[in-house]
Amino acid sequence: DPYARLLLDALKQSGCTVFSDRHFSCENCDGCVSGGFDSARSQIVLCQNNIRQQSHMNRVVTHELIHAFDHCRAHVDWFKNVKHLACSEIRAANLSGDCTLMNEIARFKFGLKGHHQICVRDRAIRSILAVRKVSKETAEKAVDEVFDACFNDLEPFGRIPHSQADAKRAYRDFQNRDRYNANL
């Protein structure tokens, strides 16, 4: 998966190498949660009882790898600062493929103008509410306060990958980034 490959390379380049046997855990989970990032263990949890398709698993892995990347590079305060959590959730919804047109059509949610941003905002709020005991108003306020900056933070992709082809281009660009910068 080009999304995961890019994120794994970016983590390694940031000094946070990921080992599949150490940093991934498949578990049974409560409710309809598909995965999570355990910051205390730097571990991605995949909810084997709630993931039914490979494409869904790829999106969950990508979403959680974005959290791992943010944890590595930005020293996110996951538990005390809801704005930090909101920012990472915005980035994960924006960059993981959660809000692609096809996924939104499958959810019977689609629109034209600004729909991607609406989806990212809604999914970030839902994610915050799933992992923190905060009011919906608190989650909405945190997302709204950091939305623009976090939505426009496209690292390490450099673009919003709306498809596998976009993710492959982003991965190729990421691999060539050092070579390009060396010529400046």
Automatic annotation (TrEMBL):
Q: Name one GO molecular function term.
A: metalloendopeptidase activity
State its Enzyme Commission number(s): 3.4.24.-
GO CC, sorted alphabetically, is: mitochondrion
What protein family is recorded? Answer: Belongs to the peptidase M76 family.
Q: Which keywords does this chain's UniProt record carry? A: Hydrolase, Metal-binding, Metalloprotease, Protease
Enumerate the Gene Ontology biological process terms: mitochondrial protein processing; mitochondrial proton-transporting ATP synthase complex assembly
Name of the molecule in the record = Mitochondrial inner membrane protease ATP23
